[in-house]
Amino acid sequence: MAANERTFLPLSQATPPYFIGVDLGGTNIKTGLVDDRGNTLAFTAVKTEVPAGADAGVGRMAQSIETVLQEVGLTKEAIAGVGLGSPGPMDIPAGMLLEPVNLEGWDYFPLRDRLQEKCEIPVTFSNDANAAAYGEFWIGSGREYHSMIMITLGTGVGGGIIIGDLSIDGEHSHGSELGHLPIFSDPNARICSCHQRGHLEAYASATALINRTYEALRAGRKSSLAQLVAEGQELNGLNIAQAAEAGDELAEELIMETADFLGLGMVIFLHTIDPAAIVIGGAMTFGRDETELGRRFLKRIHEVALQRAFPVPAQKVVLRYATLGGDAGYIGAAGRARVDYYQQKMNTPGTPKN
Ligand SMILES: [Zn+2]
Prior knowledge:
Shape: globular
Bound molecules: zinc ion
Number of helices: 11
Strand content: 15-25%
Largest sheet: 5 strands, mixed
Helix content: 25-40%
CATH superfamily of the largest domain: ATPase, nucleotide binding domain
């Protein structure tokens, strides 16, 4: 969903209680005020400005919370909880960042408590990828299910797992690291961004697709992309996809090979979790259902699962694209705050989302 497609529900039609979701990224802080059904009432995005430091970042998040409150005409007393999704690694029970790759210099910062002190609203702390998965689960592509896995394809490969309405953060806040599943054990397997070999991300991210394309061109494979490179252009997920759509055989082959790697990942998900739905999101989704290439990509992932996984989960799982785009993060972070709010209110573990 592009930013200009975001629709705002008027306060008069919204369902209280209200929550605010903050999606902290290495580039932007996206903040949205949502109602009890996940409808967005107000939204703002500001630059993170990582080098200015974590305290300044907390200041910008608190200011963004003020902005969305003012836009709707609510005070902070009307907000039942703030959800904060942050890049990991992190210690969720402690509310602490560890050594986040995308927030250089914010190491071992007590992010949850500092934001809570500043905005005076209870803050629920989540991993950003897990929050985005929860957003899709709550009101996006997984809304009719009680178990779902989301895998996001971009510079890296991220993901989130929800089982029985509970998001799987893990005992040590490192759960649902789906990009770092080993799919190859070969000692010469590709090296992942985390420096280990053979991980899914090293094969199926946009970065991996670009690297594999350059390698094929260097090896002398014929492709229209060779012309782009000769003209000094850099390859990216978009121009590789465009080449495939225009009939370029190499681009098509490498994109379908990406689907094959994801299919191996999917077999692991089916055999560990057996979810109702697997949702593919992120920046690299080849036009999703709206293009022939997007539909072929999804079909190919499913074909691998049908060949290599147990037939019942492979046939019954619903495989589809995400629908919330870049909004999934703040919506899901708000949704996680909502879970905490109802859990405390009802004193029950696991809150039904409906
Ligand atoms: Zn890895």
